[in-house]
Amino acid sequence: MTTFVDQVTLHLRAGHGGNGCVSVRREKFKPLAGPDGGNGGHGGDITLVADPQVTTLLSYHRGPHRSSGNGGPGMGDHRSGANGEALDLPVPVGTVVSSADGEVLADLDQPGMRLVVAPGGQGGLGNASLATTKRKAPGFALLGTLGWEGDVVLELKTVADVALVGFPSAGKSSLIAAMSAARPKIADYPFTTLHPNLGVVEAGSSRYTVADVPGLIEGASEGKGLGLEFLRHVERCAALLHVIDCATLEPGRDPLSDLDVILGELAAYPVPDGQVPLIERPQLVALNKVDVPDARDLAEMVKPMLEERGYRVFEISAVSHEGLRELSFALAELVDADRAAKIAAAAIKPRIILRPKAIDESEFTIRVEGGTETLYRVLGAKPERWVQQTDFNNEEAVGFLADRLAKLGIEEALFAHGAVPGSAVVIGPGDSRVFDWEPTLTSAAELITSPRGTDARFDDNRRRTSAGRREEYKERMDAKAAARAELEAERDAGIWDTDSEVREGE
């Protein structure tokens, strides 16, 4: 059974970046010829593409989990890893992309529009790329970052110029089949149409699309029947055509009451901000099935009443094609007027101003969180990415991370927020890595050339002068003379006897 799906949730996982390589070039008579580790490849992006050849989201309803390729790791001899394979997902024109929280990300209402909805991870740098004049042989490389992973919601809103609305079995499918080359399913029972059908109509030099929206009933805007599910497809239409069944045999129904019910449902349906409400858009009325004698009499009776309300009314028959030519040209007039208004609005569109990033704009924020102990959380794209790229099993890599964070100004910001040595600092949201912060000494930094964890300023490295050496020599000689005098005094006092010690030694 064919199923129409116009709203799905995609579970996406973009490719992860590859790790950089740690490698040292070895040549004959030159075992350590410098670092040659290559960079890791970037992860593949997941992109949504508006494709006119795609008309439904059914394939994503059956397979909502999609992922792109991971980047390859770097290798020695300056060989970079391969980039992950990107993934393009074709979607129908008119697809609205939203986040899991309901925030609209993009409206793909033009063919060929592209949206990178899940960016791939960044590949890590190898030790060859990390080498500098001061760090000539890095013993570490950067890890690849994770690709974006999460959910997005796709909602299809049919892009058509005219929407046919009316009760079930009013003849909308027959009308679109008679006016265009569309061949929708037609039967003599309610709710035959289970999804919108599109047809292209040509009226003179005008060419426009017509959408057959599934039948509306009273309470459709509140979720009754199939109307609420498909009223979203009316949002993009420039004009509405009310198709009224003049040959219905259901008790309590007549053309005027049917029109009032449909108008009430259109008025109750909320449209996005900036769009014209459905009830205020140009509308025509088509009294259908006038090929039936009783229906023709009813149409002739109610037509003046509808015209008094301000509607332009057409008596038509989808079976005999009576009145269809006049109706198609009337709809073309509404569509051409709407297109001309859009062109005029686009001509006076306000100028787009691109403002550069402020120089003093902070690249991170610090949030103080309470609990059993005060926690300082650092949030920002750069520090969070740097933590992902760090191999915490490598002390040199950890030191490189500390240097980057200090250069970014995080230590000064922590001081300003009241952090003290030993405070718990976490970088990133959620359960990220927690550090016991030990600030780096920055005063007189040009004198600090010792390894991390030591301070050369505490060592006495003063050079000795000639006078100092003479004084040291005299002190040493005086100490030896004092020692000899002490030994002579002990011997004169009889504390020890040289002859008896010699005899005992024999």
From TrEMBL:
Region of interest (Disordered), ranges: 60-87, 452-506
A Pfam family that the UniProt record links to this protein: MMR_HSR1
Enzyme Commission code(s) on record: 3.6.5.-
GO biological process, one term: ribosome biogenesis
Keywords: Cytoplasm, GTP-binding, Hydrolase, Magnesium, Metal-binding, Nucleotide-binding
HAMAP family: GTPase_Obg
Protein name per the record: GTPase Obg
Organism annotation: Pseudolysinimonas yzui
Gene: obg
